[in-house]
Every structure is written in structure tokens, then in C-alpha cells.
User: Fold Pseudouridine synthase from Nocardioides islandensis.
Amino acid sequence: MARLFGLSRTRAADLISHGHVQVDGSTAVKSDRLVAGTLLEVAIPSLADPLEVVPAIVEGIRIIHDDDSIVVIDKPVGVAVHPSPGWHGPTVVGHLAAAGFRIATGGASERQGIVQRLDVGTSGVMVICKGERAYSVLKNAFRHRKVDKVYHALVQGHPDPLEGTVDAPIGRHPKADYKYAVMADGRHSVTHYSTLEAHRFASLLEVHLETGRTHQIRVHMTALKHPCVGDLTYGADPTLAQRLGLERQWLHAMRLGFEHPDSGEYVEYESTYPDDLAHALDVVRGLD
Assistant:
């Protein structure tokens, strides 16, 4: 099969195991041998492009602001910003395509118009560019740290000091490629935090990102021994998460401020806590 159809042996074996191959009318197994006169029938399904943007309305995405250049949304948990290998769930760009928004063509095809990202498990405010000039201006603003990114995070325990800065480089975790960690050879990463509320089991922090590394807040809080509540990937207490009814990290993108790419005027957009985070915070307050 591999020679006849120009397939890899792995792909040929996969087709056989999924019942796409018949030998003389019977479903084939990998050990079957072909002899002269044998009828070999192979159905080769088309492979879906994992980076293809599939238009689909996503329940829960709220439009905060919309003009000719940008659209600002409130992203719910469980939604990726753009398609990626291994992700088969809803995406922000898929929703915008289905809703009829015209997005800038700057960037790779699956993330056109995207100048920032939020983790699938992180909710909150984010901006997407509709025009090419807006994409160029805001991409540059994010790159040069001219965008104010403010998050709220509920972390275990009480950070000491109550207000501070974490300046520690972040790189891929040496033993788990889906995680990140503070690494000597990592990328420069700076997180500023201040305590808004201190409770018996957890503290509510306001976090300002100076840089924008993947999982930055989650990694830096874990490095301080105060992981985001519910963040089991980074060592949070599963018992506390269950007690609060959390199925993801308590982390929310609250505010986003920047100079509008058209007017140059400083604009700021804000989100509110989604139901799961609001409930968990109420429970924490009640445990004092």
C-alpha cells in the first residue's frame, strides 16, 4: 500500500486499522499478504487541516467594542483564540468569521488580525484588529510594551510582600512540553502584582504584565509558591479547587488599555468576572 499510493507505512497502517482497506471484498488486517490477482480497495479520507478557520458562532463571546479598526471581546473560558494542532474546540477567529466580521489579513492565516492571546482556560478582555493599519500599530504596541494589560488572579495563601514584582525568565518546562517554568535560559519576563483582598485560604491580586509570555502569571505565581487557585497544572491544591467548584485556574483578563490605532486617543476596555470565578470568590470570602 505504501508503495502503490505513496503513503508512509504509518499512514497505511492507520487506514487499515480504521477499516478503510479491503482485500477481495473483506476488511483487511495488517498481516494480509497480496498475491497476483488480489483485488485491493482503499478509501483514503481527506485529512482536515488542523489550522483551518472553521466559521462557527460561539456562545458566550460578548462584543465589548466594535469600530472600523478593532473589535474588543470578552472571551469565555474553553475557547481558543485561533486554531492550533490538537485543538478541536471553538475559537475566537471562527466566531468572528461566522458573525460576519472582516478581520485584518496580517499574520499567519489561522491567526490573522490577532495581536494578543489568552489561554483556553483564561477568560476576559482582548482586542482583535479588523484593519491592516490597526494590526501593524497594535502589534508594534504590544511588542514595545505600550499596552496596559491588567489581570485579576486568586492565588493560594498570602504573597509576601503583599505587593511586588517578579522578574524571572520563562522557558518550556524541561520535563513537560505543555508547561512552562522559570528557567535560567528562558525569555525575559516581568510581572507586577498587588493584593486587593486577603482571605483565610487565598488572596485576590491585581496583576500588571510588563511582558507577555505564555502562562506568565501562572508560572510566576507558582514560582512564588502561591499558584492560581484551581490551576492543577501548576501545583494548585485540588481539594481547595473542588471546594470552590473550580474546574480551571482563577485568572481573568480584567482591563486592556492602549492608544487607539486610528485616533491615537487612549482607550480602555473592561470585563467582569464570569459566573464560575465570581462564585469561587464568594465562597473564599465566606470561609474567613
Observations:
- Residues 145-288 form a domain with the Pseudouridine synthase fold (CATH 3.30.2350.10).
- Residues 114 and 128 are 5 Å apart (CA to CA).
